[in-house]
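Last lecture ended with a question: if I hand you only a sequence, what can you say about the shape of the protein? Today we answer it with a concrete record. The protein is GlcNac transferase. Below, first the input exactly as provided, then the predicted structure, then a couple of comments.
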Amino acid sequence: MTLGQALTIAAMTWLTSGTYIYYDYPQGNQNQFFYEPTHQNTPLDANLAHLRPPPPRIPEIHDIFIGIAAYRDGIKCGFSIWTAFYRAAHPEHVFVGVVDQTLPGDHICIEEYCKLAQASWPGPLCRFKNQIRIDARNAAESKGPTLARYQQQQLIRDEEFCMEIDAHSQFLPNWDVEIVQEWARTNNEMGVLSSYPLDFSFIEKDLSKPSTYSSHLCGYLDRGRVEDIPIIYGMHLIHDAVVPQMSALWGACLSFSKCHAEKRVPIDKHMNWVFWGEEYLRTFQLWTHGYDIYSPSRLGSVVFHNWTHEPNKKKFTDNVTRSGDQATHDQEETLAYNRLRLLLNLPFQGDTDAKEMHIFNPPPVRTVDQFLAFTGISNVDPKQDTWTCGKQLHWVPYAVPSIVEELLPGWSMYHQDNRQQEEFAMELDMAQQGTTRLLWFLWLAPLALVLSAFGIVYFRRSKKATKYTPVATR
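The predicted structure:
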């Protein structure tokens, strides 16, 4: 290990020891929790603690696909795409697919992009236009974001990485390099970076990342009935995260993974009118098929979101009686939500839509019961639901590993070569042992201050740290 690597690992270990979150749960009770992401890919079960997820595979040259489902949002959509190309280190390897849902007279996403492109790269042509794929649709026929995201997936070709963002987003300079580096820090080929991006206001004046905060999803709105679909409470801020934090929730505003996640786990197109609950559905699909969600750290926060409230914002719910009648809408919505309840083993009344279950919900890698336990949701009593903010989540080994092994030739969950992971863990342990001493020299901090800070961190962590049982590795 080189000196530079040692310094990097030592600094990351020291910083990670201070990764914490504040959350208000139960409501009115302020809590603080320190995460330990160094061990998040280690199963809690001591008998399985030698197992690890498959390591990341990154080709030297790779393309990135950005998917956008835009609903009557042409100006912001064009700006989002412009920042993706203009601020990329390698724009020639960036490709965009847009499901642009508009009505006559609306701004068109690709046209708004070309206005900005021609101002940035003067000339007769709209630069990078040939790398943008458009699926133009009548907004009056829209039946919600879930169907639009399925349509967006059909624009993916042979790209290595796939990203999904909202139409009102913004990229930072060098984002395409840094997001792949952040994904690699999950140390998991099946990792998915996802959260609600921070607001534009968090971007520094020089277009740099915030120095402290990153976003994390870990809470739910209270469910009054057991049949209610879990809905994300909103984002929480993690302080000083330098590695991706394992999460139990997928956020639709940002998703980044290998494209095999999008191709192997297609979004369910039979979820007409589903908005509240679409993110828990996608979490379920990904996690039960072997993928793990991680919130990007502050080092990987390169996409931001326009959270400005717009009273006159156009919504797909305007189409309830525009393309049909209320009774037809209500029936389609009920069938879709009952389909979602059926998948989650939640009780429901009435009919459901069970078409093409084998396509959109093929045999899983992990079970539904494992998923509910991992995400803290009860299918018996909603009072037993728990948030995941105040616990360090850990990787759950696959119940049917052969499905992932078929995807990744040469990797086997029970017969894997863990030397790379073991060496990395040893380096982290070595760095942790010498971190305090190393930091004295690096930052020339006064001895008393360093000892005091170390004592406070150690006291807090000793109260909250997870106990790990050493086991022999294969």
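Comments.
1. Residues 419-443 form the longest helix (25 residues).
2. The domain at 1-474 is CATH 3.90.550.10 (Spore Coat Polysaccharide Biosynthesis Protein SpsA; Chain A).
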